[in-house]
């Protein structure tokens, strides 16, 4: 598209297109600034301060080279305030509900999720996405040092911990909402296995809320190695592709045959809203990280019917995730 000579509608269109490109391409500035703030423990420092925190107080409290301080921290905070992670009050910086959800000791903290998503081990996968599309072999994209990401984690304790903590932090909120608002889901169950249940965040919460329910966490051996269960909680290591029929992000399966899926259902009707955008993010993320996908309702329906279920119920009680129960 050549730039027109006279300033008019077409020029505005090109300028708007340029701004559109810049905004989307530079979006990583926000994620990476947030990651930096979390690594410097800025949310925790402001929280511990107990009231608005001036930039001088923040600089004094930060474990940074003071020569790099004032101006750069001010600029880092300015963008994070702009997008709603902090508030600039009259007397200094304050937390928002979003930054509270990033505090280290907050039970529902999403900090581990942020750290993992923005870790080079996951970010690197994106750099070879186009190469994968064009190369001649048929390997699934998501390989890290030649292995699927979750398998590779078995060779690298840092990545194992990073992924397990990230998955757990994401699961904590969802499962507490489900236990609070969807108690009926677990009624009548005697035993339940959380397939791909990570280090057991969800199963632990369920086993505590339902002491009569026997819960097992099933995941790859390196994920559950050394983990100890309790009265009604146990850990089993194995490969779901060998011993359990195909499962998705979180699959809870009772011995009697009830299947409970907590996952995204892509909703094309919501095309113009934010949650559709997040569903798209998640779908492409699944493609790149684990050669997986998010499904729309028709695709879920086909999966269930191919697996021998005649119908299913979708309940919208979990924000971005849905509770999907095939019957
Ligand atoms: C997206 S995470 C979900 C974790 C957990 N459900 C949670 O929400 O915290 C997927 C989980 O599946 C596990 N996984 C991947 N491949 C597996 C396999 N072949 N057999 C068993 N578990 C597997 C991973 O180790 C990981 O813990």
Automatic annotation (TrEMBL):
A Pfam family the protein falls into: Dimerisation
Gene source species: Solanum tuberosum (Potato)
Keywords: Methyltransferase, S-adenosyl-L-methionine, Transferase
This protein's name: O-methyltransferase
InterPro entries assigned: COMT-like, COMT_C, COMT_dimerisation, SAM-dependent_MTases_sf, WH-like_DNA-bd_sf, WH_DNA-bd_sf
O-methyltransferase C-terminal domain span: 126-253, 255-310
Family per similarity comment: Belongs to the class I-like SAM-binding methyltransferase superfamily. Cation-independent O-methyltransferase family. COMT subfamily.
Ranges of residues in domain O-methyltransferase dimerisation: 22-104
Keyword Ion transport among UniProt keywords: no
């Amino acid at each position: 598209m050549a730039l027109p000579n006279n300033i008019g509608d077409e020029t505005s269109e090109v300028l708007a297109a340029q701004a559109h490109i810049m905004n989307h391409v530079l979006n990583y500035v926000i994620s990476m600034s947030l990651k930096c703030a979390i690594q410097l423990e800025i949310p925790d420092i402001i929280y511990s301060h107990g009231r608005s925190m001036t930039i001088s107080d923040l600089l004094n409290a930060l474990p940074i080279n003071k020569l790099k301080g004032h101006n750069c921290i001010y600029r880092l905070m300015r963008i994070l305030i702009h997008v709603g992670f902090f508030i600039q009050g009259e007397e200094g910086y304050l937390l928002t509900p979003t930054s509270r959800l990033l505090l280290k000791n907050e039970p529902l903290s999403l900090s581990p999720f942020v750290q993992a998503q923005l870790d080079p081990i996951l970010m690197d996968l994106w750099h070879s996405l186009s190469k994968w599309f064009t190369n001649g072999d048929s390997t699934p994209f998501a390989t890290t040092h030649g292995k699927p990401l979750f398998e590779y984690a078995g060779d690298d304790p840092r990545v194992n911990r990073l992924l397990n903590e990230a998955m757990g932090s994401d699961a904590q909120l969802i499962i507490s909402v489900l236990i609070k608002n969807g108690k009926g889901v677990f009624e009548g169950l005697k035993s339940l296995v959380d397939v791909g249940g990570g280090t057991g965040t969800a199963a632990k919460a369920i086993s505590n809320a339902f002491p009569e329910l026997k819960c097992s966490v099933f995941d790859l051996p390196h994920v559950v190695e050394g983990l100890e269960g309790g009265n009604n909680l146990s850990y089993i290591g194995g490969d779901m592709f060998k011993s359990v029929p195909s499962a998705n992000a979180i699959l809870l399966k009772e011995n009697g045959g009830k299947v409970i899926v907590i996952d995204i259902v892509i909703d094309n009707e919501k095309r113009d809203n934010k949650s559709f955008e997040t569903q798209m993010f998640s779908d492409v993320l699944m493609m790149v990280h684990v050669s997986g996908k998010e499904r729309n309702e028709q695709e879920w329906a086909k999966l269930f019917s191919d697996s021998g279920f005649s119908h299913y119920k979708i309940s919208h009680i979990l924000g971005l995730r849905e509770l999907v129960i095939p019957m």
